[in-house]
Amino acid sequence: MTAVIEIKNLSKSFGSHEVLRDVNFSVKKGEVVCLIGSSGSGKSTLLRCVNLLETPSGGSIIYNGDNILDNKHDLEEYRTHLGMVFQQFNLFNNLNVLGNCTVGQQKVLKRSKAEAIDKAIEYLEIVGMSTYKNAKPRQLSGGQKQRVAIARALAMDPEVMLFDEPTSALDPEMVGEVLKVMRALADQGNTMLIVTHEMEFAREVADRIVFMDKGVIVEEGHPEQVLVNPQHERTKEFLKRTL
Ligand code: ADP
Ligand code: MG
């Protein structure tokens, strides 16, 4: 299997604070990779470096064989291949559900309004939110907002979906509906990189688990291997606190 995204020797510092150090990993086509680790270990920063919301301090991001940090690449174009779902939804509050799911398609992908609406409805149906197409974000529950955010990202036809703790801001009763949608996306073969604290979900859905601690990847492997039979003391400590 070829890697869609390959991260090599990635580092990131904020001033003198080194947040990521020599991070190496890849996401292959159709693979679901779950990134786990304590708060402050650098998971969000890593995801933000992957989609260039943060500029890495060093290393490479190889996208389909090209290092997109080598100055020759159109970073905006690269970004359109990545869909991002944030903990806090980040919906446009002034737009309704349909507007949220069409604005990027029209502005960035230059799709016609009709085409953008068709796509939006298609994905809103997949996440079970098409009947809310005229609602404003403030009229929705957290779980509904997150499902719209997922549909919005999918409507851009990204090659990789990035999720940063998509259920951490939700009331417990809404976590399930979002995980169900994500599970379906995984089953359909979407390529996904997911930061999550939902260990049961990660164990069931991930092809690979990557455990980060203090800015480095400590351990990675098959879910059964990392979650059930961890090799490193730091992984064991983390899992003891989490499970
Ligand atoms: P996680 O997502 O694993 O909880 P983060 O990537 O959010 O971790 O943060 C890792 C470290 O980087 C933390 O110590 C955090 O304070 C620091 N950090 C993150 N973003 C910034 C920033 N924009 N400026 C300075 N420090 C930051
Ligand atoms: Mg985070």
From TrEMBL:
Q: Keywords, A to Z?
A: Amino-acid transport, ATP-binding, Cell membrane, Membrane, Nucleotide-binding, Transport
- SMART domains recorded for this chain? AAA (SM00382)
> What is the membrane topology noted in the UniProt record heading this document?
Peripheral membrane protein
Where the protein is mainly located, per its record?
membrane
Does this UniProt record's set of keywords contain Nucleotide-binding? yes
Record's GO cellular component, any one?
plasma membrane
Which Gene Ontology terms cover its molecular function? ABC-type amino acid transporter activity; ATP binding; ATP hydrolysis activity
> Which locations, inside or outside the cell, does it occupy?
Cell membrane
In which domain of life is the source organism classified? Bacteria
- Family that this chain belongs to: Belongs to the ABC transporter superfamily.
This chain belongs to which protein, by name?
Answer: Amino acid ABC transporter ATP-binding protein
What is the native source organism of this protein? Metasolibacillus meyeri
Query: What lineage does the source organism belong to?
Result: Bacteria, Bacillati, Bacillota, Bacilli, Bacillales
